[in-house]
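During the reporting period the student researcher (J.K.) took over the structure-prediction task from the postdoctoral fellow and processed the backlog of single-chain submissions. One of the processed entries is reproduced below for the supervisory committee.
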Amino acid sequence: MAFSFWHSRGADAPISIPAIGLELFVRLPPSASDGALTVIETVNAPGFGPPRHRHREVEVFRVLEGRYLYEVDGRRFSAEVGDVVSVPGGAEHAFVNVTDRPARQLVMILPGLDAAAFFTELGTVMQAGVPERAVLNAFGARWGMEFLGPPLRPSDNQMG
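J.K. obtained the following structure tokens:
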């Protein structure tokens, strides 16, 4: 795999999806790694996270700020600052910020995904709120993603 020089200055405007409390920055686009890797930074509002979903890409999350409740293939656990969570490709997963402040994660996606295009399109799909699952899955089909259920909620915080 060939990496090219890339310098993310961190001054980019975020991609914002208010319906799921998300602000996202692409820190390393797939073009910088010949498609092998994408790195994004997410800021999740209190009580928010994505709908349950699965996709072929592996995701590796590092919690930078806050605390999250994760669910990966039915297993629930908490992740705090410094924790790393790897989600295998094809695993059903979701997470939610369980603090009363914004929480941040650095996320590596392997192989790389055009995260700027994906999340910009997702923001358009969610412009009026989180749509019905059929609408999400029509969008997701173009990206190899399946939406499986609603987002986790902090009240779901039953550790198992």
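The committee noted the following: The chain has one domain: 15-148.
J.K. will present the remaining backlog at the next meeting.
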